User: Which sequence fits this backbone?
C-alpha cells in the first residue's frame, strides 16, 4: 500500500483519538462536531480503499458494525470478586477498624468511589490495544461483548501516554447516562417498544445486543475501578493506580478520592448523597477500599468478596407495597388530587404511607387498581410516587377500580374538569373549607375589596379561630371577637372594623374580581361589569351570552356560568350584598361606542392628574387591553414624565405616543 496513504491513516487516526480523549475523558471538547465528522469521513474513505484496513482499533470501529448470532463465553483469568455491603455507619466503622487492626501504619488511607449502578465488565488491553471485553457473568465466566464495548464513547480503543503495560486488564462499570436513558425510553415508546425500567437495565440490555450498531446508538459510559491481570509495574496504592489508568486515557469517575479517618469517610457518603441528583449517572452508594495494595493482599478475601472493600449503599429508593385505598385531597386552590393510601413501607430512608397519583391521566397511564401491588419510589426529598404496578401479582378478587368523585370531598360542591386540563377542581371556592383561606385572602386583597389591615396572616388566624368561614362573615365580626386574637389590640380591632365598613363601597368590577372565579382577573371583571352593569345580569347570563363579552372565551364563560350555578356561591354572594356591599350605578357605554376595543396600551412614566392604576382602569373600561411591555402589537403608549426604555422602544417601532393631557382630553370626549 502507498506509504503516503498509510501515513495519512495513522495521522487521521491519532487526530480522532485525541478528539475522543479530549471530549469523553477530559470532558473538554477541542473541536466542533463538524470538524470531527469531517476527519472521520476522511479516514473512512482512506480505509475503504486500503487493503488490510480498517484495523480493529481504528477510531472508525467505534460505531459498531458486526452483528453476532450469539456471545462466546469468556473465562476470567482472575475471578471477578463481588462486593460486600454494609447498611449503616457503625458497620462501616467496624470494617475500617478491622482493616486498621491488620496494619502497622497509623491512620490507613481508603480509596473512596461512588458505587455506579451499572454492570461490571472486564476489558483487556494488549500492548495498549483493546483486544477483549467481557461481562462479569458469575465472576468466573462471562460473555464476550468486545464488539459492543468498543462502541462505548468514553472508552479508548488504544491507550495513550508513557509506560503502558504490555498486558492490562481493567475492571469497571458499564452504565447509561441518565439523560440518554430518558431519551432512549422516549424513542422506544414512540416506536411502540417497551421502555427500560431503569438506566441499569438499559445498560445491561444494550450490552447484550447482538448487533453492535444498536449498542453503538445507546448512550453508554464506562468507568474503571480496578485492575485485573497485568504485566509490568503498577503503583502500590488503589488511588494511584486509578490515577495511572487515567494517565493512559482510561475513563475514571471524577469523584474518586483518597481519604483517611472515619469522619472523612462518612462525610463523603453524605456529600455524594447530596450531589447524587446532579450526577450524570446513577449511583446507589459508596465503595470503600483499603488503599494500600500490600495491605489488600494481607486482608485477602472470604467466600467471593475481598475483606479490603465494602459498599455502603444508599437507602433503597424503590420498595414494593400495596395500595389499600385512594383518597382525594382538595388543595388550597380547589385542585383535587388522588392520593394512594399505602400499606406503610420503608423507602428512601423513611416510612411512607401516602403517594401522590397526580391525576386521572397518570392513573390511566399506570393502570392502577385499589388493592394492587405497586413499586413506590422516593428519591431525595421529593414526594413519593407510584412507579409501576406489578401486574403479574394482580388478584382480580381483591382489586377494584379507582372512582373519581362527582362532588368535592370537603364541601360537596360540584367538581369540574376543564377540557385540556388533567386536574379536576372543586367549584365551591368561596364556601369550601379547603379553599377558605385563599378565597378570603383574595377577597380582601388590594385589587379586590382592598380591606386595609386585613393581611394574609390575619385571615389565617380568623379562619383557624373559627371566627369566619366565608368572606361574608367578615362583616359580622365584632371588636370583641377581633381583640381576642393574639397580638390584636382594641385599637387595631377598631381600625379593621372601620376598614371593613369602608370596603363595602366598591365597584361592580372589583366585586366580581373579589369572588375569585377561575380565570376572571381584573380585566375580565371590568369587561363583565361594563357589559352587564348589574350583578343580577351576570348571575343569570348563559355560557353563550357570556361569550359576547370582550375577551371572554368558552372556557372562561363556563367558569363564570358554573360559579353562579353553585348554590353555596349564590348564598355567599347574597350574604355579601345583604352585608351592605354596594357600588355606584354604571353609566352604560354602548359596546359599539367603546372606541378602544381591540387596542393595546402600554403605560409608562409618572403622571400628575390621574394615577397609573386609574388610567389603566379607565382604558380597560373602554375596552382596551393594557400590557406591561411594548411590542409590535402595541397600539399606543401613554407616556408620563421621566418615561424610559418603553418610550424609546415605542419610538423605535413607530408606535403612537400619547401624553397625559392628550389622554385626559380623549377620556373626556368618549
Ligand atoms: O462502582 C461500582 N459499582 C464498583 C463495583 C466499584 N466502584 N468498585 C468495585 N470494586 C470491586 C472489587 C473490590 C471487587 C474490585 C465494584 C465491584 N468490585 C463489583 N461490581 C460488581 C461486582 C463487584
Assistant:
Amino acid at each position: 500500500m502507498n506509504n503516503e496513504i498509510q501515513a495519512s491513516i495513522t495521522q487521521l487516526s491519532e487526530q480522532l483519538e485525541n478528539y475522543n480523549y479530549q471530549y469523553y475523558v477530559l470532558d473538554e471538547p477541542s473541536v466542533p462536531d463538524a470538524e470531527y465528522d469531517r476527519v472521520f469521513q476522511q479516514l473512512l474513505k482512506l480505509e475503504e480503499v486500503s487493503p488490510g484496513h480498517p484495523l480493529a482499533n481504528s477510531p472508525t470501529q467505534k460505531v459498531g458494525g458486526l452483528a453476532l448470532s450469539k456471545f462466546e463465553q469468556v473465562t476470567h483469568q482472575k475471578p471477578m470478586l463481588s462486593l460486600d455491603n454494609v447498611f449503616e455507619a457503625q458497620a462501616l466503622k467496624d470494617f475500617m477498624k478491622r482493616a486498621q487492626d491488620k496494619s502497622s501504619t497509623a491512620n490507613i488511607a481508603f480509596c473512596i468511589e461512588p458505587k455506579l449502578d451499572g454492570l461490571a465488565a472486564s476489558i483487556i488491553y494488549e500492548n495498549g490495544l483493546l483486544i477483549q471485553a467481557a461481562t462479569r457473568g458469575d465472576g468466573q465466566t462471562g460473555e464476550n461483548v468486545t464488539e459492543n464495548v468498543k462502541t462505548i464513547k468514553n472508552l479508548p480503543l488504544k491507550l495513550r501516554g508513557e509506560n503502558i503495560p504490555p498486558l492490562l486488564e481493567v475492571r469497571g462499570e458499564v452504565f447509561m447516562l441518565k439523560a440518554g436513558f430518558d431519551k432512549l425510553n422516549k424513542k422506544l415508546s414512540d416506536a411502540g417498544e417497551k421502555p427500560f425500567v431503569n438506566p441499569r437495565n438499559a445498560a445491561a440490555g444494550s450490552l447484550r445486543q447482538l448487533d453492535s450498531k444498536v449498542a453503538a446508538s445507546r448512550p453508554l459510559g464506562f468507568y474503571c475501578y480496578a485492575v485485573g491481570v497485568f504485566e509490568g509495574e503498577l503503583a502500590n496504592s488503589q488511588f494511584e493506580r486509578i490515577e495511572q489508568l487515567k494517565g493512559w486515557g482510561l475513563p475514571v469517575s471524577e469523584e474518586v478520592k483518597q481519604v483517611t479517618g472515619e469522619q472523612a469517610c462518612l462525610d463523603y457518603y453524605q456529600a455524594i448523597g447530596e450531589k447524587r441528583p446532579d450526577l450524570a449517572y446513577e449511583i446507589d452508594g459508596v465503595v470503600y477500599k483499603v488503599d494500600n495494595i500490600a495491605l489488600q493482599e494481607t486482608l485477602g478475601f472470604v467466600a467471593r468478596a475481598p475483606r479490603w472493600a465494602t459498599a455502603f449503599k444508599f437507602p433503597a429508593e424503590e420498595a414494593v407495597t400495596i395500595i389499600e385505598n385512594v383518597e382525594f385531597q382538595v388543595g388550597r386552590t380547589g385542585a383535587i388530587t388522588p392520593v394512594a393510601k399505602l400499606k406503610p413501607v420503608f423507602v428512601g430512608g423513611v416510612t411512607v404511607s401516602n403517594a401522590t397519583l397526580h391525576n386521572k391521566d397518570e392513573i390511566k397511564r399506570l393502570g392502577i387498581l385499589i388493592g394492587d401491588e405497586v413499586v413506590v419510589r422516593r428519591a431525595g426529598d421529593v414526594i413519593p410516587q407510584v412507579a409501576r404496578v406489578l401486574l403479574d401479582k394482580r388478584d382480580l378478587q381483591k382489586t377494584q377500580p379507582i372512582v373519581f368523585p362527582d362532588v368535592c370531598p370537603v364541601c360537596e360542591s360540584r367538581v369540574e374538569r376543564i377540557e385540556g386540563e388533567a386536574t379536576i377542581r372543586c367549584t365551591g371556592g368561596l364556601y369550601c373549607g379547603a379553599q377558605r383561606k385563599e378565597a378570603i385572602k383574595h377577597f380582601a386583597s388590594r385589587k379586590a375589596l382592598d380591606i386595609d389591615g386585613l393581611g394574609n396572616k390575619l385571615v389565617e388566624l380568623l379562619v383557624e379561630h373559627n371566627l369566619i368561614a366565608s368572606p361574608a362573615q367578615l362583616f359580622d365580626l365584632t371588636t370583641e371577637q377581633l381583640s381576642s386574637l393574639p397580638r390584636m389590640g382594641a385599637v387595631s380591632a377598631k381600625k379593621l372594623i372601620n376598614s371593613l365598613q369602608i370596603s363595602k363601597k366598591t365597584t361592580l368590577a372589583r366585586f366580581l374580581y373579589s369572588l375569585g372565579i377561575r380565570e376572571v382577573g381584573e380585566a375580565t371583571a371590568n369587561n363583565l361589569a361594563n357589559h352587564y352593569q348589574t350583578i343580577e345580569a351576570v348571575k343569570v347570563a348563559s355560557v353563550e351570552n357570556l361569550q359576547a363579552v370582550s375577551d371572554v372565551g368558552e372556557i372562561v364563560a363556563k367558569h363564570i356560568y358554573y360559579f353562579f350555578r353553585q348554590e353555596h356561591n349564590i348564598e355567599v354572594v347574597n350574604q355579601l350584598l345583604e352585608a351592605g356591599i354596594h357600588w355606584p350605578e354604571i353609566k352604560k357605554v354602548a359596546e359599539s361606542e367603546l372606541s378602544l376595543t381591540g387596542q393595546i396600551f402600554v403605560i409608562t412614566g409618572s403622571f400628575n392628574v390621574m394615577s397609573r392604576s386609574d388610567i389603566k382602569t379607565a382604558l380597560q373600561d373602554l375596552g382596551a387591553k393594557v400590557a406591561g411591555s411594548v411590542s409590535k402589537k402595541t397600539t399606543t403608549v401613554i407616556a408620563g414624565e421621566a418615561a424610559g426604555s418603553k418610550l424609546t422602544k415605542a419610538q423605535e417601532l413607530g408606535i403612537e405616543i400619547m401624553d397625559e393631557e392628550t389622554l385626559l382630553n380623549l377620556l373626556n370626549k368618549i
About this structure: The chain has a mean pLDDT of 92. Residues 322 and 373 are 4 Å apart (CA to CA). The chain has five domains: 2-63, 85-313, 317-393, 428-586, 600-669. The first strand starts at residue 73 and ends at 75.
